[in-house]
Amino acid sequence: MGAGERDALVDVDGVLVGHEQRLDPHWASGVTAVLVPEGASAAVDVRGGGPGTRETDVLEPSHLVQQVHGIVLTGGSAYGLAAADGAMRWLGERGHGVRVGPDPAHVVPVVPSAVIFDLPMNDWGNRPDADFGYRACQRATRTETREGNVGAGTGAVVGCVKGGIGTASTVLEDGTTIGALVAVNAAGSAIDPDTGLPWIPTPGLRRPDQAEIDAARPLFGSRPGRHGPVDRPLNTTIGVVATDLRLSKAECRRLAVAAQDALARAVRPAHLLVDGDTMFALATGTGAALPAPGEQDWSARLDQVSAAAADVVARAIVRGLLAAEPVDEVTSYTRLYPSARE
User: Fold this and answer.
1) In this predicted structure, what is the pLDDT of residue 195?
2) Percent of the chain predicted with pLDDT > 90
3) Separation of CA 144 from chain center
4) Radius of gyration of the chain (CA)
5) How many CA atoms lie within 13 A of 330 on its CB side?
6) Cβ within 8 Å of residue 161, ≥6 positions away
7) Three-class SS state of 250
8) Which element (helix H / strand E) includes 225?
9) How far is C-alpha 26 from the chain's CA centre?
10) Beta partners for 148?
11) pTM above 0.90, yes or no
């Protein structure tokens, strides 16, 4: 088992990723579009107490629609859900969606979405809209691997440091590919204050100097904004885990649950009332199928894939932390602990 070619979500066959963001003295927000134009089985797991979501009910296994055509991750709190309108328009113009009429253009794209709360990183009124979502889709490619202050991670904050987009992938021994992309923006911390290291062991890092650890310790528990401390936490981690396996909606749900397990390992505490932690799972179906439920090895195989998904999501979260760059008074991990890099 090793990383995919790009070590990113786009290693999963059938998945495209696009970002649109604005970062200037008045803006720090954006949109990430994860597109599966030919359709994919999907599921969601919501653990945070303050989610901002759209079209998540359609992902229930018992409901009519069996596939989605994209996932939108966006800043802007509930206002940012408007970005999904732009994604629907882009997909609909190309005939991607559920067919609802005699003409091939008569489609309704299914685009579940989730938001992070990044409003204090922007002047009031500046938040992503439908045009952001449309442009993120226009930019979607099979080669997008950028991390940090891009897309939905542009205004992200995790604990006392800047958060951002992180992505990773793995390929199992049988060739199955699993990838993840996460916008890391949590009330909790991705850093152990006693060691100065991410909670998830990470190659390429060493324990920071004790002086750096001691200097950083008072920052934990505070909530930085780009112009000083904020009263309301900038919160909610959202993401997508995907595989090329052929999975049902119910089987996808196990991957979404595993993704939340990874979040609880990588960010502590997680799933708070002020978080809206939401994880989507996609199965593009371009690869092999699992054994049928009840057949020998079905549960063991699904557990293996779910465990790998959790590892990939945890690694993506750390990469989002490490790739983020400071924005005004919000420092970054690499700025707070410059000696941590080997």
Assistant:
1) 97
2) 90
3) 14
4) 19
5) 31
6) 191, 224, 321, 324, 330, 331, 332, 333, 336
7) helix
8) strand 224-225
9) 24
10) 165
11) yes
- Residue 222's pLDDT is 83
Burial 38-67 (b: 16+ CB within 10 A, else e): ebbbbbbbbbbebbbbbbbebbeeeeeebb
Average pLDDT over residues 3-9: 95
CA nearest to 97, candidates 71, 73, 68: 68
Beta carbons of 110 and 98 less than 8 angstroms apart: yes
Structure tokens at 332: 């970054």
Which has the higher per-residue pLDDT, 222 or 42?
42
Nearest one of 195, 215, 339, 211 to 268, comparing CA atoms? 195
CA distance linking residue 209 with residue 195, whole number of Å = 9
pLDDT in tens, 241-290: 999 999 999 999 999 999 999 999 999 999 999 999 999 999 999 988 88
Q: Which residues of 255-290 are buried (b: 16+ CB within 10 A; e: fewer)?
A: bbbbbbbbbbbbbeebbbebbbbbbbbbbbbbbeeb
Q: Looking up tokens 């090793």, which residue turns up?
A: 2
